[in-house]
Amino acid sequence: MTDSYSPHPAYRLMVNGEPHDVSDAWIGESLLHVLRERLELPGAKSACEQGECGSCSVLVDGVLVCACLVAAVTVADADIRTVESCGSSQSLSVVQQAFVDAGAVQCGFCTPGLIMAVQDLIDRGIQLPHASPFDELATREALSGNLCRCTGYGRVLDAVARAVEASR
Amino acid sequence: MTAGGLKTRSPRLGESAPRPDGIPKVLGEFAFGNDLWADGMLWGKTLRAPHPSARIVSVDIGPALAIDGVAAVLTAADVAGKKTYGLETPDQPVFASEVVRYMGEPIAVVAADHPETARRAVAAIEVVYELTTPLVDADLAAEGTPIHPDGNVFRHLVIRHGDPTVQGEVIVEGTYEVGMQDQAFMGPESGLAIPDDDGGVELFISTQFLHVDRDQTAACLGLAPEKVRATVAGTGGAFGGREDICLQVHVCMLALHTGRPVKMLYSREESFLGHVHRHPAKLWYRHHAKRDGTLVNVEAKLVFDGGAYASTSSAVLANASCFAGGPYLIPNAFIDGWAVRTNNPPCGAMRGFGAVQTCFAHEAQMDKLAAALGMDAVELRLRNVLKTGDAILTGQVLTGAVPVEEVIRACVESPLPPKATGAMLERPGGAGRTADAHHVRRGVGFAVGFKNLMFSEGFDDYSTARVRLQDGVATVHCACAEVGQGFVTLVQQIAREVLNVDDVIVAPADTSVGSAGSTSASRQTWMSGGAVEGACRMVSEQMERNPGASYYEATFEHHHAPTEQLDENGQGNAHVSFAFVAHRAVVDVDVELGLVKVIEVATAQDVGRVLNPLQALGQIEGGIAQGVGLAVMEEMLVIDGVVRNANFTDYLIPTTLDMPNVLVASLIEQPEPGAPFGAKGIGEPPTISSTAAVAAAIRDATGAPVIRVPVRPEHLVFAADLVS
User: Fold this and answer.
1) What's the predicted TM-score (pTM) here?
2) A29, A53, A152: residue with CB nearest B625
3) Closest residue to A108, CB basis, from B16, B30, B649
4) Which pLDDT band holds residue B458 (cuts at 50, 70, 90)?
């Protein structure tokens, strides 16, 4: 170990457009841990810490990732977007409103990750020029990294259909 | 209605009211147990035994205590009260101290300033084990050397019904096996304990059975129950896996010992190791029928592996045994039920609670019997359906709604899905695109099931609710654990309906009000729904008597009709009510590769009355997903007592690509006498016969016997080889 190595480097995260200085944090902390336990942004959920369940889905420079698999220090100054940026209780996003209306929420633990994944699907799909990027199989493929144990996905897929319709 | 008349009327019973927690949940603002935080909080972490069977020679916590940032390391020696706990019998140690009986059993807990410090401290504890040979075969448990002072038999239940020596003209026999399923709720176990000035502790806990958590925790802490003030923290699913306590005592011990708030969260691996599972079971059956298909006798031997500790094994076995024949009129039966102790992971409650395992077997037997008789399998079932006034295997005469024929007819008469297009992405194997179209065979299977609602065998599982009405706003206080099922929505609908108000506040579920019992056994709509209704009606009466009061308040305790214990022949009126369900599954199977794609599951269910159509649909679709999972993918792999797949990489639950469309053919609404609003619980039936229906569909597609779930490719490929 060299003298320049610090297990507690200081770094800055840009989350939902706001700068957050992180200091005295152990270098091994995941982005998920820093968001939840240091920045008071608990929207991303920790359910497997293996990148298998999608509950911690966030956007890093526009790419949907599992925050549990990203070391926070490696995304210093990247553009990080979490579910907290999606809407407010006065003004839900289209996707959030669709989840409420469709009955896609039960225990809700997977919900923030799904909101991020569906928003990403719609944002990417709307940029595609060709027809029907939202057919059912494409939607199922896009969401297959987000596990839900309560709903059996039926109402989630209905929420996606509603959100796509409302986004057109 | 506000002065401007802009406010809309809030939904009443029978309407798809939105969840009051829906908006916080989509915003990411809803606080789960994992999200809680307190000033000066420490992190708790558990040391677990890596062996299924061992003697503990020594435990040295010194190296852990020496780590900077570690505030406490506690073991069995620090348990101030009762050393053991358990829902039915207190046979499970808070910490193992002399003997390890299953892999993952807690040895010690640590509180530290950072989760990583806690992890290192746990790793630094030095335990010397002397390994012993684990008892892992349930068939050998009863006769084997006891691995616990209470012995190896949790319960041996014999049901003798009618004349079990009666022989049928046609007899079919089979042996079946069900693997160990996990609830795999998404929110891992979590809790926050905050020490109080009076020597007590405040506990925020993700749970499904708050008051019994409180009672068990207080007993082990050596505190009076009122010194443990418990509140349901946001709970990320449950499905039976949170009926037992896990970290409750540990986190409170750490908080009381350190004088600081302590939070514990299980990792996914710990979650798999730290809660009970669905019992694996071996089931032998012999069905006797007349040539016309009339059932005359069912013999069965059921062996349920309860793992190391009792949990609810006794009640699970009772369900398995009482409903072992399925929803058919069976005049004679002999059911030999065993729940035994092994060094496998402890098993207890999971959605369906014993009825799932036997349903898989009795429905396989019904198909086998139909084949032996040369009869249509649905026709055979219709010939034998239970009706109101019939007796089940326990001699209990059914007095409520028994729409077995209705659920069967509605389910089979629903349209079948279109034929496979052959499109590559729609074949078994999914995105892997591995199936050849000409190897794909379609199969259709059918199954029927039933189970009890509420707790049985004389248990008085009441619920309590307190309602206050002031300034046109009703506040409902009930300790019912909301675990995702939507009781909070129902509370609002009931209070609006009975009190004719629009604004209903659901107060936090805590122990400052009486017990609501467990969120299990499909019981909360009936039990806590009834408690809320009762309290609201009392408030209504107060308003009539005294119209000008500034507020009204009432507390109501709702008890269901009493039940009896089973006698020495397994006979008695042990159950309150029953729900019936039918499922039809359609599968495509690549017979060369053994890959299964479930195309559709259709269902009809006996619900009494639908109180919230959208939430009912959510329960049905979600329950079927768990049934499909057990049929084709979900199993805890336990080899010589060692769990091999305690993670979501290797324990697979259905994704969007695995889950078929669900067709709800019909919800049969025959109001149940004695049930609040006539409604039966709807949470469990979707899991009971969906697994059996998928298994039957795979049999239909492949000709393979499918005597075990989950079905694996080798079960189909080798069977296909034999057939060809």
Assistant:
1) 0.97
2) A152
3) B30
4) very high
